[in-house]
Amino acid sequence: NAGVTQTPKFRVLKTGQSMTLLCAQDMNHEYMYWYRQDPGMGLRLIHYSVGEGTTAKGEVPDGYNVSRLKKQNFLLGLESAAPSQTSVYFCASTIAGKETQYFGPGTRLLVL
Amino acid sequence: RKEVEQDPGPFNVPEGATVAFNCTYSNSASQSFFWYRQDCRKEPKLLMSVYSSGNEDGRFTAQLNRASQYISLLIRDSKLSDSATYLCVAHAGNNRKLIWGLGTSLAVNP
Predict the structure, then answer these.
(1) Minimal CA–CA distance to B53: which of B37, B64, B40, B68?
(2) For labelling alongside B50, which of A14, B26, B79, B90 has CA 20 to 30 A away?
(3) What dihedral angle (degrees, nearest 10) is formed by the CA atoms of A83, B10, B83, A3?
(4) 3-class secondary structure for chain B?
(5) DSSP annotation of A73
(6) Shortest CB distance from B97 goes to which of A42, A48, A100?
(7) Residue of A40, A45, A104 with shortest CB distance to B43
(8) Best of A101, A102, A107, A109 to disrupt the B interface by mutation (most B CBs within 10 Å)?
(9) Structure confidence by residue, pLDDT tens digits, A6-55
């Protein structure tokens, strides 16, 4: 049972480049989340999804887009990367009716 | 003021010590709370859930004081492997969103 997986594990981008982070879960969870974690800022919610085909903005959505075309996948896109988006990105999922979130191992992104 | 506040530490304790962390929350509507553990450069993992007055799991005890709006985590007989950052989390009440504290760093020394 893989749980929550994230691809890639590490990436370096130049300012203005685009990329997509992939989150996949095999637990049949309805809810999925994208967070970023920065020193001194803690975990901040970027976007989340309560089901296939639905997405919603979190606390810090600017500069990011998401899609949930399949229940098991939640994609986070950066259209034009900026140095301020250098961070560790975590994906999480949870089952409907429960609050416990299960996290992926994270993606470390460096934008130069 | 952040919605969930924790003492960042670091707490440096010897093996076998008892250590307690406190966390305060500002949203009185929050109904459930959690302690997550995060090791360096790893993802957060659930340590304990706190739904009523408290919860105990082995060496770990979590208590909730709704009147004062704080949650505590007590670790007894600390082990070297307990060294980590402990994140206090409150349930925001809608769409299963969680409000995260910044974490308390614990270092257990031999």
Answers:
(1) B64
(2) B79
(3) -40
(4) CCCEEECCCCEEEECCCCEEEEEEECCCCCCCEEEEEECCCCCEEEEEEECCCEEEECCEEEEEECCCCEEEEEECCCCHHHCEEEEEEEECCCCCCEEECCCEEEEEEC
(5) E
(6) A48
(7) A104
(8) A101
(9) 999 999 999 999 999 999 999 999 999 999 999 888 899 999 999 999 99
CB contact under 8 A, A99 and B42: no
Q: What mean pLDDT comes out for the span B79-102? A: 88
Q: Chain A interface, mutation test: which of B5, B39, B43, B50, most A Cβ atoms within 10 Å?
A: B43
Count of other CB atoms within 10 angstroms of residue B79: 11
Q: Is B45 exposed, middle or buried (0-12, 13-18, 19+ CB in 10 A)?
A: middle
- Closest to B8 measured CA to CA, from B27, B25, B24, B21: B21
Closest by Cβ to B96, choosing from A41, A44, A99: A99
